[in-house]
Amino acid sequence: PPMGWNSWNTFGCKIDEALIKQMADTVVSSGMATVGYEYIDIDDCWMDGRDSSGKIQVNSSKFPSGMAALATYIHDKGLKIGLYSTPGTRTCANIYSGYTGGVGSLGYETSDAQSYAAWGIDYLKYDKCTANLSGFAVMRDALRASGRPIFYSINPGDGSGCVPGQCSIDLPNIANMWRIGFDINASWSSIVGLIDQNVNLASYPGPGHWNDPAMVE
Ligand code: GAL
After folding, report:
1. Rounded Cα–Cα distance for residues 113 and 83 (Å)
2. Which of 105, 161, 163, 188 is the most buried (most CB within 10 A)?
3. pTM of the prediction?
4. 127 given a catalytic annotation
5. How far is the CA of 128 from the centre of ligand 1 (A)?
6. Per-residue pLDDT tens for 106-116?
7. What span, in angstroms and rounded, lies between the C-alpha atoms of 192 and 187?
8. 123-127 and 39-41 strand pairing
9. Rounded CA gap, 142 and 207, in Å?
10. Is 183 one of the catalytic residues?
């Protein structure tokens, strides 16, 4: 499975380009890159609404140089870059913590996939929040049509559970990776609990598609 670093559990919405560059530097200098940790994944709160033509806007106070420049910085280190969106109209941080710039991709899947491809994005975390499951296949097709290989990591659960064999969508045919449980945290009970859940789903992963017990703690 893909390995790397994700911004959410440590920094939440408090992210900016200096921080993300520092994390990329650290993944290299710590030696994690040489053992396969290659993705630098920017979670919720990088976006800031849409322009009048519907194009997704990067939050320019957090990322003044733009997302393409950050992607180049990360690529030049031999790493890859990920972003976050949702199949609804509002991201989880918008819904639950009032980050009003957090717009989702519903109805804008093709446009957003084209923006990601143009910026050089390598990975998308697509998070259900309160949206419908049907949107996951729409973004899969939009990413494919973008012409850039973009790893597709989805969170189809909302606490109620959507895991292979028990979900109305065919996860291995829709995504490269799917979350199997609720948000991880830096406690033994959380980590071992997700390992236990993963054991029961061991028959579902295969080449190019994996169970996701969530980010590294
Ligand atoms: C949650 C998700 C977290 C994080 C957060 C961002 O739904 O499980 O991993 O992405 O949204 O708002």
Report:
1. 11
2. 105
3. 0.97
4. yes
5. 9
6. 999 999 999 99
7. 9
8. unpaired
9. 22
10. yes
